[in-house]
Structures are given as C-alpha cells and as structure tokens.
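Weekly modeling sync, notes
Attendees: AB, CL, MP (scribe)

Item 1: holo prediction request
CL wants a bound-state model with nicotinamide-adenine-dinucleotide before deciding which constructs to order. AB pointed out that an apo prediction alone won't tell us much about the pocket. Agreed to run with the ligand included and paste results into these notes for async review.

Input as submitted:
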Amino acid sequence: MGKLGEIMVRFNNKVAMVTGAGHGIGEAVATRLASEGARVLVCDIDGGLAEAASAGIRGSGGNAEACAIDVAQRDDVQRAVDQAVASWSRLDVLVCSAGVMERTPFLEETDAHWERVSGINLQGTFLCGQIAARQMVAQGEGGRIVNVASNSGTFGGRGRAAYGASKAGVINLTQTMAIELAEHDILVNAVGPGPTLTRPEVQGDLMASAVNRMPLKRYGLPEEIASVAAFLASDECSFTTGHVFAADGGFTIAGVMEG
Ligand SMILES: NC(=O)c1ccc[n+]([C@@H]2O[C@H](COP(=O)([O-])OP(=O)(O)OC[C@H]3O[C@@H](n4cnc5c(N)ncnc54)[C@H](O)[C@@H]3O)[C@@H](O)[C@H]2O)c1
C-alpha cells in the first residue's frame, strides 16, 4: 500500500493466474490486477478470447500472457502454472473464475450435464487450487487464492441443481483450503457475485424475481466483482480466510424488503 493520496498499486512484483479470464468477471479481474502492477496469466478454454484479453492488457501498458486451458484437465492446469513460472519465476495469486451457468430442470438433468458443470465449476477449482498452492508452498512466501462462487451456492434456485451444487461445493472447498493452507500463509477466500452483467447483448433486463430480492435492484458490473476479488487477492487481505465475500447488491442479506 502506498501513502495517503497515492494511487493504489497492490500487485507490483506479483504474478497472478486468472482462469476464465477471456471474458466477463475473469477478464475484469485480470485487467484490474494488471492495472495494479501484476503480471497476469490470462487462462481460458477459448484461446482466442485469452489472447484478445491479454493483448488488451498489454495495449493498456500492462503485463500479460495468454494460456489456453480447460480447467477440468489436470495436465492443462499444470501447464498453465508451469508457464507462469517459466515466464515470471513465481506464482503469488490464483483467481478461479472459469465457470458455466446452464439452467436445467431437476427432473431433466442428465449425468453428462451434471458431470460437465461440476467438472468445470468444482473440480476445475480444486485442480487449479491444488496445483497453484503446491507452487506457492514450494516458493515458501505465501499466496492468495480467490474462488468465484455465486449466491446460487448459498440458496437453492430453479434450474440450478448442477450449478448451485457446484457453487456450494466451491464454498465448502474454499473453507477447507483455508484451513489446510493457513500454515503456509496462503489465504483462500471466495467472492460471491449476484446477477452480473457479463453478456449485455443477451441478458436483457434483470428478472423481477431477482430485483425483488436485491436492495440495490440492479445487475452488478464485472468491474464491481473484480474490485472485491482484487482486495481478497492482495496483501491488504491479511486476516480474512475461508470467507465468502458477497458482491451481490444485498441479495444474500435481504429479508423483508417492503412494508
Ligand atoms: N455473471 C453472473 O451473473 C454470475 C453470477 C454469479 C457467479 N458467476 C460466476 O462467475 C464466473 C464467471 O462468470 P461470467 O459471468 O464472467 O462468465 P463468462 O461466460 O462471461 O466467462 C466465463 C469464461 O470462462 C471460460 N471457460 C468456460 N469453461 C472453461 C474451462 N473449462 N476452462 C477454462 N475456461 C473456461 C469461458 O470461455 C469464458 O471466457 C463463473 O464461475 C460464474 O459461475 C457469474
């Protein structure tokens, strides 16, 4: 942290890996960390998106490389960590934003779809967390891991059997990782976004059933989720671990809203 009045630059000399960073919340996180000095490995299953996002960061004067990986594949994740270390000699921060949100009625849910959603959202978070943490432990200087959960992991939601269960799993995994990695000074937290406007071309107006539960009554912007994730990824976050930090317009705290 700088002196009062200085611009916040919390990631000088830090190396960060961000998954799902080709688009949406992950891209906003990668951009934010790079704007504060991080060297960022922009990971996405869509190599074109990863390349475009990292080129965007470099075009703004930041330091980034692209890496095409499927977070559900151990060898891919290991290759990404190896790339970060080969390029920048270390890894300090992991942010897991890669995820898929596909609604399916419970009675129509299939094994294949369940495995796809939990494979990316939950197993992918496990693989990235374990492989990145092993690198951080070997370095011996601590680290920060931020998982992107969802308020669908806290409450049930229509069509969200696979998605919500995967995000509930991410929340519990975050807690266990926080306990086991504390002795290595690796702090593990999650950000819990509410409805976030990552695809304005298709998302339309926020549905009434969400608006009616949210004191702030609007979509969040990817940058608003990224600012919370950046705090959790920084050394400023030094006594918070295993926590889910909601960035959801009040969705998860709202009780009676009218009358
Ligand atoms: N947008 C929301 O309203 C919202 C709300 C709560 C939680 N979230 C969570 O935030 C995270 C990001 O969501 P988003 O809205 O930015 O989505 P997005 O679709 O805009 O971006 C997700 C990115 O992840 C990538 N990806 C998908 N599968 C992958 C895989 N197997 N390996 C690597 N990359 C993969 C995609 O190519 C895409 O670029 C997700 O985990 C999502 O569940 C989003």
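Recorded for review: Residues 180 and 186 are 9 Å apart (CA to CA).
Action items: CL to compare against the apo run; MP to circulate these notes.
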